[in-house]
Specification:
This protein is α/β, with parallel strands linked by helices. Helix content is about 35%, strand content about 25%.
Length: about 230
C-alpha cells in the first residue's frame, strides 16, 4: 500500500534523510526506531506531506504522491498523529474530533462508535476542553481525531512519549485492534523498545538519516536493535 523509495530530505543545507526506503502493508504494523535526531520524524513528515523530499518517490496505492499537498494525502486515506499530539486546547473533545471531518465525504461526517469503544474516556469528556485533559488523554484524543478521517494508513509519531503506563497499554491494545481489522496499514515511530517489539510486524532502525537495520519481526536481533537505541 505504501512504498517509500530511496527518499532524500533536507532542511536548508542539512540532510535529514539519506536514500530511505520503507514499506507498509494493510494488517501489519511497521515500527521505525532509532535515537533522537536520526530522522524518524522527518520520515513521517515526508510521508504525510509536511516536508518536501529532494529525491526518491513516495508511492501510495500504486500512485506517486511525492508532490501532493498534505490535505490531498489525507483525502486519499493517510492520517497523521504528530509527536506532541497538537490537539486544539480551547476546543472541546467533540470539536477536536470533528476537525477530522475535513477530508471525508459528507455522509461520513460523524464520530464512529469504534473510537469510544477504544478510548471510553473520550465519551465521558466530550464537552471538556482539550487543553484540560491529561497528556495521555490528549494522546487518545489525537489518535481518535485521526481515526475520524477513516484512514487506510495511520502514521503515529511516538504515541507513548510522556504517557502513563496504563494509557500506554490502552494505546497498544487500540493499535492491535486496528491491525486485526486487516484493512489499515500502520507506521509507528517508537523509542520504547518493548512497546515496539510487541507490536511490530516489520521494523526499520535508523541512524544518521539512513535505515541501517530492517526486516520482519522474525529477523529482529534484540541486542542489535537496542544498541541503536541507547545513547
Amino acid at each position: 500500500m505504501l512504498a517509500v523509495e530511496s527518499i532524500d530530505l533536507f532542511y536548508g543545507a542539512a540532510q535529514a534523510l539519506r536514500s530511505v526506503s520503507l514499506t507498509a502493508t494493510p494488517g501489519r504494523v511497521t515500527c521505525v526506531m532509532g535515537r533522537n535526531g536520526v530522522g524518524k520524524s522527518s520520515l513521517l513528515r515526508a510521508i504525510v506531506g509536511h516536508q518536501p523530499i529532494a529525491g526518491g518517490k513516495i508511492m501510495w496505492e500504486g500512485q506517486d504522491i511525492s508532490k501532493l499537498a498534505p490535505h490531498a494525502r489525507a483525502r486519499r486515506g493517510i492520517a497523521y498523529v504528530p509527536q506532541g499530539r497538537e490537539i486544539f486546547p480551547l476546543l472541546s473533545v467533540r470539536e477536536n474530533l470533528e476537525t477530522g471531518y475535513a477530508p471525508v465525504k459528507r455522509a461520513d461526517r460523524y464520530i464512529p462508535d469504534e473510537i469510544f469503544d477504544l478510548f471510553p474516556v473520550l465519551k465521558d469528556m466530550l464537552w471538556r476542553r482539550g487543553g484540560d485533559l491529561s497528556g495521555g488523554q490528549q494522546q487518545q484524543l489525537a489518535i481518535g481525531r485521526a481515526l475520524v478521517t477513516r484512514p487506510r494508513l495511520l502514521v503515529l509519531d511516538e504515541p507513548t512519549e510522556g504517557i502513563q503506563p496504563s494509557i500506554i497499554k490502552d494505546i497498544g491494545r487500540a493499535i492491535e485492534y486496528l491491525r486485526s481489522k486487516g484493512d489499515m496499514a500502520i507506521v509507528l515511530v517508537e523509542q520504547y523498545f518493548e512497546f515496539a517489539r510487541d507490536l511490530a510486524d516489520d521494523f526499520a532502525v535508523m541512524d544518521r538519516g539512513a535505515v541501517v537495520i530492517a526486516g520482519d519481526k522474525s529477523s529482529m536481533v534484540e541486542k542489535d536493535v537496542r544498541s541503536r537505541l541507547s545513547v
